[in-house]
Amino acid sequence: MLTPPEEFVGKCRKLRNRIEDERKSSSFTCGGTITIQGHGGEQKEAEETSLHSSPSLNLFWKTAGKTSAEKLTLPITGTGDSTAARLQQLVQDCSPATFGVGSKDILDPDYRRAGKLDADSFASTFHPADFGILESIQQVLLPSISSDLENRLPFRKLTADLYKMNVYSGPAGLFRRHVDTPRSSKQIGSLVVCLPSEFSGGQLIVRHHGKTVSFDWSSSSGSTIQWAAFYSDCEHEIEQISTGHRITLTYNLVVSEPGYCDLPSPVVDPKSLPLYAMLKDMVAKPGALDKGGVLGVFCSHAYAHSSTTAEHSLPQILKGSDLVLYSVFKSLGLQVNVLPVREADGFYHTENPQMDIGGRTHPKRDKYAIDEYEDSLGYATKRYWPFYRLPGVFWLTEPKQEEMAFSYLAYGNESSVETMYSCAAIFAVIPPLEKRHGEKWKLLVQE
Ligand SMILES: O=C(O)CCC(=O)C(=O)O
Ligand SMILES: [Fe+2]
């Protein structure tokens, strides 16, 4: 690729700033509360029909050697199936929860101290779809971005697949920082629902790119259902529980194929976004890669995919600012690909001196990655993740996710080999100037 002129580089720098702004302003987590009818605070008249209130809920679980299910009604009232003794039975019937380090499941109470029931051994009368929770998450974490061009991204919907019940008990329950292991390449996040059971401590802390949000559920824990959802690539932790039992249902949030009669979440037209005007101005005029080229932008999020599904699945699961950028490129009529990018020995071959991009990053490795588990990770990566070189890309941004990619591989809530997170990049192919004609380009130039 010839060295692009300074004017083009100046525009690229502005574009990069705009992309960074988009990243800073996008959300990575959200949460809410559902009151329990007849418990705590004032009773609202419309309570029974409200989306934000629930009747008491029942949990059923099986125990070895018994033919009938155990039952617990929450919140605790002290009568029937809703007693401290029933709750104690639940705690006792849970098995210790492990966590994943590379391809191994590890039991280490200093890292995670919790009980668990697998999804096939319990049932509850609660479902997030009954309370508008999925719609709320969809609006924040999965906005629809559409345009009238042929290549638009179809509306996407979220479903919540029940994964586990966990009980974190005082005075020592906790789960140190980790990233949830992807269970499929369509998973974009996790939903945690905290059931009404009194506890203190146990804040859930969620982080993404230096931003932190904490969910403190303790003060309303006895009388409400509280929930939080976050993107899969967010690092999170549960601080130590001091007293009581923090009971959670966890769900995998999965992008489902769009249905015909689904109401879309709010739709943003990419052409209304400042990035669109900026890019349009750049590619519609001479001076921007006139001989053609490829613009490369590292994604702001890491994505779960397996090496064989990456090419197909990555565009479908794009999140937040990455989705915005992808849609803008698409609506300009450009060919866009989203591909995982692998580093080799701490070096991404993404140097672009004109944009002050070095390509080298300094991974901050977690203790679990450095110590005994590193070799198995290195082996898994080499064996399952072959790669090819893609030269001639004009990089607009630095790699974003290397530090996190190491974390992802190193410690999750479950072991993993075939499906992993990796740092992805969006590649937009800019045709040579004389080829920027035809229907879609006319549209672009005339607007
Ligand atoms: O209970 C929570 O708040 C989060 C649980 C969690 O991080 C997990 O199960 O992976
Ligand atoms: Fe987690």
Topology record:
Blueprint (H helix, E strand, L loop, with lengths): L5 H20 L3 E8 L16 E2 L2 E5 L8 E5 L9 H10 L1 E2 L2 E3 L2 E3 L5 E2 L1 E4 L3 E3 L8 H9 L2 E2 L11 E13 L4 E5 L8 E8 L4 E3 L2 E5 L2 E5 L8 E8 L3 E4 L2 E16 L10 E2 L5 H11 L8 E13 L4 H7 L3 H12 L3 E6 L26 H4 L3 H11 L8 E3 L6 H9 L9 E11 L8 H8 L1
Parallel strand pairs: 1-2, 11-21, 22-24
Antiparallel strand pairs: 1-18, 3-4, 3-10, 5-9, 6-7, 8-13, 9-12, 12-20, 13-19, 14-18, 14-20, 15-20, 16-17, 16-19, 22-25, 23-25
The chain binds 2-oxoglutaric acid and fe (ii) ion.
The site of fe (ii) ion has 4 residues, from loops.
Q: What attributes characterize this protein structure?
A:
447 residues; alpha+beta; Jelly Rolls; 2 domains; nine-stranded mixed beta sheet; five-stranded antiparallel beta sheet; 25 strands; binds 2-oxoglutaric acid; binds fe (ii) ion; Fe2OG dioxygenase domain-containing protein; iron; Pro_4_hyd_alph_FE2OG_OXY; metal ion binding
CATH structural class of the largest domain: Mainly Beta
Structural class: alpha+beta
Q: Helical stretch count?
A: 10
Percentage of residues assigned to helices: 10-25%
User: Residue ranges: pLDDT <50 for 5 or more in a row?
Assistant: 45-49, 259-264, 361-377
Topology-level CATH name of the largest domain: Jelly Rolls
CATH architecture of the largest domain: Sandwich
What gross morphology would you assign?
elongated
Number of domains: 2
Mind describing the biggest β-sheet?
9 strands, mixed
Number of strands: 25
Radius of gyration (Å): 24 Å
Distance between the termini: 30 Å
Mean pLDDT equals 81
Family: Belongs to the iron/ascorbate-dependent oxidoreductase family.
GO molecular function, one term: oxidoreductase activity
Domain Fe2OG dioxygenase: 159-255
Region (Disordered): 30-51
